[in-house]
Amino acid sequence: MSRRTAYLLLLPGVLWLGVLFVAPLVQLASVSLQSGYPGHPGYYYRDVNIGNYATALTGFGGQLGRSFLYAGTATLLCLVLAFPLAWTMAFRAGRWRGLLMVLVVAPFFTPYILRTVAWRQILADDAPVASTLRAAHLLPGGHLTETPFAVVMGLTYTFVPFMLLPILASLERVDRSVLSAGADLYASPWQTFRLVTVPLAMPGVLAGTLLTFIPAAGDYVNADLLGSDRGTSMVGNAIDAQFFRVIGGYPVAAALSFTLMLAILVLVLIYLRRYGTRELL
Question: Buried b / exposed e across 150-167, counting CB within 10 Å, b at 16+?
Fold first, then answer.
């Protein structure tokens, strides 16, 4: 294949990214530095107002912190839930593998909002879960909704498939003879799992972690429907409020968006540097 042909094949993707990603990003950066006309809410002029970023950090630091805390917790829970299920589907499911795959992807057949509202019903005060916990004196607050627990559970439920599918893809590529060699060398099942299976599954774990953490940190639907405005709102909720509910909030909303994006980028780079990009190849 000639170099010219390769460039031509890349051209549609480059144009797509340029029009639908780079151009909106440049516009967002421009808005984040604008200033409002004094006495005219909702009107702006081009400026280099870095004070919008200071406002984003000082005024919405709690939402940023909660976003990373909730996303990190949900990512860990997704890994704990997804790895055993992926291992079972890869090595033990047999003819039930297709059914398990359908059960994993079936929630995507319904709208995201509807699934989150369903979780609000599941965790409602008069629902069996909350009633059982209250009867067992395990629910001191009296309710599950409008709590960090509900938000994290909603995020975990939403993003489990994003964790499971990359891990499953990695485990299905594992050569079964390598696992048999562990047993031939007198390794116990646990030693084989820890020293052979887990390292071979790391590309899927790393990919699943990124696919889960990044969108979870920017999510606002779960915090909006399962949390409360008092102490569970995430940075996505703050961006939504600044864009659509606060007159003159566009520059701060754009600055918040850029701050979130840059913070996630830094965390991802640190994560990849720590574990190595070789695992993703």
Answer: bbbbbbbbbbbbbbbbbb
The CA distance from 230 to 208, in Å, is 31
Instruction: Classify residue 278 by its DSSP letter.
Output: G
For the chain, helix (H) and strand (E) counts, in that order, are 14, 2
Helix crossing, 61-91 with 198-218: angle to 10°? 140
Question: Three-state DSSP class for 44?
Answer: strand
Summarize pLDDT for 258-280 with one digit per residue, the tens.
Answer: 999 999 999 888 888 877 655 55
Q: In a 3-state reduction of DSSP, which class is residue 41? A: coil
Residues 6+ apart with CB under 8 A from 118: none
CA distances from 202 to 91, 164, 195, 277 (A): 17, 12, 12, 11
Distance CA 211, CA 162 (A): 6
In whole angstroms, give the CA distance from residue 234 to residue 135: 31
For 196, residues 6+ apart whose C-beta sits below 8 A from its C-beta are: 178, 179, 182, 187
At residue 1 the predicted structure's pLDDT band, cuts being 50, 70 and 90, is low
String of DSSP letters for 114-177: HHHHHHHHHTSTTSHHHHHHHHTT--TTS-STTSHHHHHHHHHHHHHHHHHHHHHHHHHTS-HH
Amino acid type, 138: L
| CA dist., res. 169 & res. 3, Å (int) | 32
Q: State pLDDT tens for residues 173-182.
A: 888 777 777 7
